[in-house]
Amino acid sequence: MVNVTAAILAGGLGTRLRSVVNGRPKVLAEIRGKPFLTYLLARLAAVGVRDVVICTGYLGEQVRATFGDSYGDMDLFYSHESSPLGTAGALRLALPLIGSDPVLVMNGDSFCDVDLSFFWNWHRQHEARASMVLVEAADVGRFGSVEVNTAGKVIGFQEKNMTNHAGWINAGIYLIASSLIETIPKAGMVSLERTMFPAWVGRGLYGYQSKGKFLDIGTPENFAAAEEFFSPGDLGMIRPSLR
Q1: pTM of the predicted structure, to 2 decimals
Q2: Residue 132: which of 140, 122, 141, 142 has the closest Cα?
């Protein structure tokens, strides 16, 4: 995936996690002594990604001060929102810095142990305009669920807190064509999850059903489980050049 640009959405306010991150953005919350963002960058480095755009917002200057302009062999670029734009708005703002079509997009507060190279090939084989990694959850109430047909096309979404049952949830990893990103409004807060993905149903949006384990650090309870989620062996993928 050497020619694929990745964009990491790292601008969230992280209000639910402030009691444990002590004045830092969520992506700098430490797990096994390393900022959470390190695990995402290491996963990208493992599949050969060379260019990463980090979309920052709240306390974004801390992210740049921690990681600088490179991570291992990867070049890091920063797209900073001066006021909250939402996940879609942040991605739209970063479009001039994105050098590939499609772009690999990752939420900065979740991790999914999915084979990114396989996901890339799956996306191309399905001739998708946008694909999202899905994981199975025993209770979709907190996340909301995603419905796909037998061909892998996304056919609908169910909002969170509507019902409690097993199903497929959004794992926060996407491949999105530039032509779709250009349809995101340039002004105001816009959400990928609540606004754009529903709007893209029927326009080439697919869901890749992964068996990879999934972690969302958005709440203190889930963050507390992160130490067990990553094994000591996972630290082997952390490159020593972290600034």
Answers
A1: 0.92
A2: 122
Instruction: Please state, in angstroms and as integers, the Cα–Cα distance from residue 72 to each residue in 40, 78, 153, following that order.
Output: 13, 17, 36
Task: State the pLDDT at residue 16.
Answer: 67
Domain count, the chain: 1
Closest CA to 158 of 142, 174, 180: 142
* Residue 124, in any domain of the structure: yes
Asked if 160 is an active-site residue, the reply is: yes
Phi, psi of 26 (to 5 degrees): -55, -35
* 83 domain residue, yes or no: yes
Q: Does a structural domain hold residue 207?
A: no
- Per-residue model confidence (pLDDT) at position 240: 35
Residue 124 tokens, joined: 């191309």
Task: Compute mean pLDDT per 10 residues along the chain, 243 residues long, and list them.
Answer: 96 71 86 93 96 95 96 96 95 97 96 96 98 93 90 92 80 98 94 97 98 90 86 52 32
- Domain with residue 106: its CATH number is 3.90.550.10
- Choose the catalytic residue: 34, 160, 186, 213: 160
